[in-house]
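Ticket reopened. Same input as before:
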Amino acid sequence: MPVLTAQPFPTSSPPGAAPPNRRPGRRPGGRLAALLVSPTLLVLALVAGYPVLAAFRESLFGKREGLDSSGFVQEGEKFVGLRHYAAVFEGEAGERFWNAFANTTFLTVTTVALETVLGVAMALVMHRAIRGRALVRAGVLVPWAIPTVVSALLWQWIFQADGAANALLGREVLWTTDGFQATVAVIVADTWKTAPFVGLLVLAGLQLIPGEVYEAARIDGAGARQQLIRITLPLIRPVLVVAVLFRLLDALRMFDLPFVLVGPHKQSVETLSMLAFDEAANTRYGPGAAYAVVLFVYVAVVAFVFVRLLGADLLSGDGTGRKTSPRRATTAEGAMA
Amino acid sequence: MSTLPRSAGVHPRRAGRPGARAVLALLGTALLVAYCLAPFYWMLVSSFRRSSDLFDKSPLPSPWSLENYRAVLEPGTGFGRALLNSLVVAGVTTAITLVIAVFTAYALARLDFRFKNAVLALIIATSMFPGIALVVPLLKLFAGTLHWVNTYQAMIVPSMSFALPLAVWNLNAFFKQLPRELEHAAMVDGCTPGQAFRKVILPLTAPGVFTTAILTFIAAWNEFIIAVSMVNETSMQTANVAIARFGGATGFDIPYGTKMAAGVVVTVPLLIMVLVFQRRIVAGLTAGAVK
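Engineering reply: fixed in the latest deploy. New output:
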């Protein structure tokens, strides 16, 4: 185990023999940390860092065309600077881009908001469930476990012109063709599939809260609502923050669901990912890479704002209850220790 | 959580409420289960209808029929092989990812070192890279110098770009919630930080590791863009790609009943796995209660 061999201290020394190291956790952990962190960084550099840099480079180059000064046909690539980006924002391409941008934003905001509220509600229900807890949790795993492609197919079937949705509503809506109803179909399908993801993460957070905290609160006269707002929500905050962040980042690059459920080239649901994919699939790698880079920057800005707003808990917080009053925080930590 | 006899002193004031609470909990549970299962149930029912009564709205197929399943599982479709491919890709991705992620997540949650925040920010950053931006350059690399096209590693390695950050972040959140006093106590008792991690923290994080393993596996199983780009041989394609092609480009003549059957076949191995892991999660959460 490399972790153990990296220790500067002999592991066999008796516990009482090291008074200078009364707080071993405070030792500079640089070497150990480097050892533990570097495999992840190495893998990510290879499978994520390199491709993104390559995409950046691709977006600045175009196909070389025409003849050079001595009359030979030129082949390969040439540097075109920001020309792809200029083309992205203007004219017909620009219209398509801004439409995709608006679609991506709208779908992200609506789905993540719905999923967060539903997810927390699901977790609370699962946590309280008296009968068949295992069965309920397995049931909740179903939508989340179904591959996106399959769920797109499934909702396509439900949203058929003569399908279950229209039969239930008594309407004749052409859900999956185009228009706002197609957007609604995508929102419904995405929320159905991913709210359980939020719910499961929150449930895991809920289960780390010891029952004694609630017992103490009850003895102090706190009602169910007070317990939810003052104990449950602050204590699940770290897990919830991670869940929402991942949902947000995932929704911004939404691709498979609208692609299979509604189809490509549909104005109402074309997202930035679909636009970039369409360009690249038609061998317009330069513009495709430019769209991908724009999406990348958009995502980065959103993530940066998100982390800045909730960053204290994400980056440096080492426990729960940071934002609660000192007295209550002490109570919570005391109960957990 | 059977460690302590809970609520030894029951408040007399609360005696009347458990009944109403139980009804509410039951109602909530029923709603939740209906929400989660109804759409899949509809898919399941439709897959067992004959093509002649596919558009029936009855809750059960009137004559049950395996017509659609026969069409999907015909030897010519190569569907079994596609399922196996999916299992290999998602399974290997999950195993490698978790081994790497556990150590990294622990270091990020507990050790003090320089550039910690930078490393955290970097991992967030990679998790948000749009898949489309990764696929094209990697395909260029795999098709050219590496000759990886139509191999498992061509799908496994890029899948780690989203699986690894996901796993590190989830585990990190779990590690952060465990009180530091646990390690301090272990180290006072003579453990090195490594031993404290292995013997005290890791067993306590079992619920988190299991939840993370499931998250990672499903994410890898759901992956679509990478699998569809890196493989063009039918024998190497994953179930997802097979099913998309089923209902995609050539799919106009394929009836919905057959598509539904294909969807059920792809989902059944997952459902079995979900049930198996389900027990482990429950057991892990109970055993891992910090006391």
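Chain B has two domains: 20-65, 78-287. Residues 1-16, 281-291 of chain B have pLDDT under 50 and may be disordered. Please confirm and we'll close it.
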